[in-house]
């Protein structure tokens, strides 16, 4: 039997027994997590340590696994949306929109331009919220709380925008097949305008605090670096890959939701270290702001959802007062609408990278098979490779900059 | 010039003959089947061929088809992406229900490691040559493979999950 199949504690015990340092000190095993504050969720790293240096490690995941795909196979399409919210819950609208787009591709539904622009706005706001969390918490994990306090209130402001649009803040469950459940209110646009007016200064301040900060740079430069080639082999996408120097971005490579209409850059780094990941995310926030401004300036008039009564859940008021709406509502909820037998893969650029949905349908009201390509699950297996030979404190900074969200890791 | 799907199909058919079949364009992705004993070779060819250049393994997952004939009851679905020409392909390999085994592709892509472990965990599909094929998300003591279709979700009407037994209803009656 391969050594790797043994529990790591047992494997390390044998390694510790074999090796004793010249000065008489011994190797030790350290459990980093599952509920260590720096593990940002619940995942365990069993590390073999020589003093403070990491010799080897094994990640253990699954602590919040909630049988996501199994549940999805037993639920109608609309009821799967709340499951997607809980993937990367820092940017749940992106997951929601990715799921709707997958269904729309399956059902061959054409979306009004206005809906696509509104989706772009909300997805970019979600990306900003995601990057705010990742970068400010990287500061916290390296000992700098102030930046976090500066920017975190703006995550709240983004949540208020979500709330205005759909009534929820964290797990948004936003949208419908074909569009949104209602048009955005003037208050929502006002809140977005306020955010766009206030946030850039704060973000600039945040950058000033950390980007050229000697301590922060010492803690992050050349820490947890990964080469472009290795990152690709490990399946990296998103900011973590771009930090290594590859400008792969789903929004540019295979544009969805009218991303081709917008003018924006794809920031890339060079060395793939923690500092580059931080800088790439910082730069992406500016690009997202640019995209939102363009979308608002050119927002087309028109309906807020496609005209597909077979799939679009009618407003509740209509269900109570209009016979046709009641019939459609009944047919959608009871699964009597036609669904083609097909398979679809659709990817969106999530806060963390390529979030993919592989959907196989058999004509029934539930997916025959639904698989999520969760970028965090893909990243996390590289973590132990990235921290080998480094200090324990470097592992904390590396983990933080990878932005591994447990909801997406364990699904 | 963009990589045409006909080129992919021709190259694969010339190289692997009957081991690659059922080419069809499903929505935006060229899909085909690969014989279980050729997956590793086909993936290597897709990755290393100078024209094909599918340099990225996007996704890998299992599917269970209990209604199929015995030789085709399990499938492993691979999604690959050529970043140079920006083309995706999907291929499936079908496995026997009694012996769901296929070669690992961890020698080609490091990302396959955990994805294969996950597929093993949920479907019991054995990836031959995998360095560390053990459960990943579920607990080690588990004996079933939960994403197989024969394992239904528990009945939500189970009486031991009745709210009354947990003091959650106002009257507890």
TrEMBL record, chain A:
- Where would you say this protein principally sits, based on its record? membrane
Q: Where is the NADH-quinone oxidoreductase subunit D domain?
A: 141-410
What is known about its subunit structure? NDH-1 is composed of 14 different subunits. Subunits NuoB, C, D, E, F, and G constitute the peripheral sector of the complex.
GO molecular function (one): oxidoreductase activity
Look up the domain of life of the source: Bacteria
What exactly does this protein do? NDH-1 shuttles electrons from NADH, via FMN and iron-sulfur (Fe-S) centers, to quinones in the respiratory chain. The immediate electron acceptor for the enzyme in this species is believed to be a menaquinone. Couples the redox reaction to proton translocation (for every two electrons transferred, four hydrogen ions are translocated across the cytoplasmic membrane), and thus conserves the redox energy in a proton gradient. NDH-1 shuttles electrons from NADH, via FMN and iron-sulfur (Fe-S) centers, to quinones in the respiratory chain. The immediate electron acceptor for the enzyme in this species is believed to be ubiquinone. Couples the redox reaction to proton translocation (for every two electrons transferred, four hydrogen ions are translocated across the cytoplasmic membrane), and thus conserves the redox energy in a proton gradient.
Q: What name has this protein been given in UniProt?
A: NADH-quinone oxidoreductase subunit D
Recorded catalytic activity of this chain's protein = a quinone + NADH + 5 H(+)(in) = a quinol + NAD(+) + 4 H(+)(out)
For whether the record's keyword set contains Cell membrane, the answer is yes
Keywords on this record? Answer: Cell membrane, Membrane, NAD, Oxidoreductase, Quinone, Translocase, Transport
EC number annotated for this UniProt entry:
7.1.1.-
Pfam families in the cross-refs: Complex1_49kDa (PF00346)
| Family indicated by similarity | Belongs to the complex I 49 kDa subunit family.
From TrEMBL, chain B:
Return the EC number.
7.1.1.-
A Pfam family the protein falls into:
Complex1_30kDa
Residues making up the signal peptide according to the UniProt record:
none
Q: Which domain of life is it from?
A: Bacteria
Q: Which PROSITE patterns match?
A: COMPLEX1_30K
By its UniProt entry, which Gene3D superfamilies does this protein fall under? NADH:ubiquinone oxidoreductase, 30kDa subunit
Q: What does this protein do?
A: NDH-1 shuttles electrons from NADH, via FMN and iron-sulfur (Fe-S) centers, to quinones in the respiratory chain. The immediate electron acceptor for the enzyme in this species is believed to be a menaquinone. Couples the redox reaction to proton translocation (for every two electrons transferred, four hydrogen ions are translocated across the cytoplasmic membrane), and thus conserves the redox energy in a proton gradient.
Q: What is this protein called?
A: NADH-quinone oxidoreductase subunit C
> From which source organism is this entry?
Flavobacterium litorale
């Amino acid at each position: 039997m391969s050594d790797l199949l043994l529990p790591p504690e047992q494997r390390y015990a044998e390694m510790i027994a074999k090796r004793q340092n010249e000065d008489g000190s011994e190797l030790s095993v350290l459990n980093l997590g599952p509920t260590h504050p720096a593990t940002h969720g619940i995942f365990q790293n069993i590390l073999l340590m020589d003093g403070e240096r990491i010799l080897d490690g094994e990640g253990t995941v699954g602590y919040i696994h909630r049988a996501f795909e199994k549940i999805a196979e037993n639920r109608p399409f609309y009821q799967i949306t709340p499951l997607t919210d809980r993937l990367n819950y820092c940017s749940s609208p992106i997951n929601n929109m990715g799921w709707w787009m997958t269904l729309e591709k399956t059902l061959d539904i054409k979306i009004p331009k206005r809906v696509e622009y509104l989706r772009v706005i909300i997805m970019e706001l979600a990306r900003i919220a995601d990057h705010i969390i990742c970068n400010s918490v990287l500061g916290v994990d390296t000992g700098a709380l102030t930046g976090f306090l500066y920017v975190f209130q703006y995550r709240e402001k983004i949540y208020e925008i979500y709330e205005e649009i759909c009534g929820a803040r964290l797990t948004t469950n936003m949208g419908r097949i074909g569009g949104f459940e209602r048009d955005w209110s003037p208050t929502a646009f006002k809140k977005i305008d306020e955010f766009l007016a206030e946030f850039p200064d704060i973000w600039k301040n945040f950058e000033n605090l950390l980007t050229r900060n000697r301590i922060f740079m010492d803690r992050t430069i050349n820490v947890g670096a990964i080469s472009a080639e290795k990152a690709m082999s490990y399946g990296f996408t998103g900011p973590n890959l771009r930090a290594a120097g590859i400008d792969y971005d789903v929004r540019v490579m295979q544009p969805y939701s009218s991303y081709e209409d917008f003018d924006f850059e794809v920031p890339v780094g060079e060395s793939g270290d923690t500092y580059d990941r931080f800088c790439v995310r910082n730069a992406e926030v500016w690009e997202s702001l640019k995209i939102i401004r363009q979308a608002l300036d050119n927002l087309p008039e028109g309906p807020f959802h496609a005209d597909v009564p077979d799939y679009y859940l009618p407003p509740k008021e209509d269900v109570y007062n209009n016979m046709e709406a009641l019939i459609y509502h009944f047919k959608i909820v009871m699964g009597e609408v036609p669904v083609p037998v097909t398979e679809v893969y659709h990817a969106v650029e999530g806060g963390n990278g390529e979030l993919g949905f592989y959907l196989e349908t058999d004509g029934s009201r539930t997916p025959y098979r639904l698989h999520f390509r969760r970028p965090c699950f893909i990243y996390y297996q590289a973590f132990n490779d990235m921290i080998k030979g480094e200090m324990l404190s470097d592992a904390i900074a590396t983990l933080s900059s990878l932005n591994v969200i447990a909801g997406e890791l364990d699904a | 010039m963009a990589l045409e799907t006909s080129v992919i199909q021709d190259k694969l058919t010339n190289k692997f003959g009957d081991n690659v079949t059922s080419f069809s364009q499903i929505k935006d992705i060229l899909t085909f089947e690969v014989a279980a004993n050729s997956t590793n070779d086909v993936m290597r060819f897709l990755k290393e061929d100078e024209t094909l250049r599918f340099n990225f393994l996007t996704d890998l997952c299992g599917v269970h088809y209990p209604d199929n004939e015995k030789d085709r009851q399990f499938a492993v679905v691979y999604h690959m992406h050529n970043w140079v020409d920006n083309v995706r392909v999907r291929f499936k390999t079908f496995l026997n229900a009694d012996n769901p085994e296929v070669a690992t592709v961890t020698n080609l892509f490091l990302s396959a490691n955990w994805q294969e472990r996950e597929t093993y965990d949920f479907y019991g599909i054995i990836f031959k040559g995998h360095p560390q094929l053990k459960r990943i998300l579920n607990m080690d003591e588990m004996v079933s493979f939960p994403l197989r279709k024969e394992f239904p979700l528990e009945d939500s009407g189970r009486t031991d999950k009745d709210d009354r037994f947990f003091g959650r209803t106002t009257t507890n009656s």
